[in-house]
Amino acid sequence: MKLMERIRQQLGVKLFFSYVIIIIAGVVSLILAAQLSAPAALARHTERMEEMLYMVGNSQELVDSLNESFVVAVRQILLFATGAALLTALIVSTVVTRRLVGPIQRMKTASQRIAAGEYDQRVEAPGEDELSALAHAFNQMAGRLSETEQRRRQLVGDVAHELRTPLANIKGVMEGLVDGVLPPEPVTFQQVEREVTRLQRLVQDLEQLSRAEAGQMLLERERIDPARFIEDAVTRLYPQYQEKDIQLEVRLSPQLPVVSADKWRMTQVMMNLLGNALQYTPSGGRVEVTAQSTEEGLVIRVSDSGIGIAPEHLTHIFERFYRVDKSRSRAGGGSGIGLTIARHLIEAHGGSLWAESAGPEKGSVFTFVMPLLP
Ligand code: ADP
Q: Count of H helices and E strands in the chain?
């Protein structure tokens, strides 16, 4: 039943049936015309024949009359049939063309409006034929375009916002120097250097983010023991942990399974999680890194005894530029896109990354799972 309905909905079938209708109409009108016109012609002829036979008896005239009547009858029949067939063809083709061209015309208008920047344009897509499938695809494309445009605007706004603070700070220091309010001493220049470093980091992060969002993050995968990238990140950050007096404990299950991963990218993810744990855990606190193999894959966890995250922020911290406490994050040089990039990197490896926290001041746990090799 469903198959029949689908076949009936196909445009090709519709066109075919429209031609069949035209042909049937032509045949029916021919038959009707012949039936209506032939008996009358015959009757006229019989009448005339009787008259002639009675009066003149000229057989040649009889034959001529017979021919003439026949030709007239056939002409009438053809004329009528042609007229009827043409009229039917005109009606049917007008209806079919309107059904075909109408949606195409609407899509053309909508695409012109989208090209002019009206991204909320959509076309109606009733029925199930190829044209409505095309309209559906068109609407999907328009939706994606509108999302992309929205993201682009948001990104430009966010970047402008992120640039404003360091630039304003640099300008402030420069003005202070020019006016003689600030002394031209190393402390003053270090202030400028800090802001410039923040700007550099922001630019690097933005480059990575745009590549990650475009799905262009190229991974140099290799079969690797996860302990290598975990220990690499730990070694790099260990001095800072010591400096801040935070205890860093690494507990890896013996014989972790080998995974297929880009070593440098994974080190980057680990450094982001360990860097955050360091930044958001007060001195005297504790951070623990664990890794174990489970049925779902290799599970790596970074838990801290730090400031924790309130439930309403938990789902948002992976969004770009989202920071629970803007001033605190900025003070630590955070751009608010580290976790966004980390999640993209883990997902590019076929894994997933999420955060848990019992609430403010209760510490946080960041976990990611990497698929195991078959
Ligand atoms: P940032 O550069 O600001 O640290 P991230 O994307 O790495 O940016 O993190 C986003 C936000 O998530 C941070 O600003 C912070 O509010 C929160 N966050 C991340 N890690 C932790 C953590 N370990 N403890 C508490 N909050 C965290």
A: 10, 7
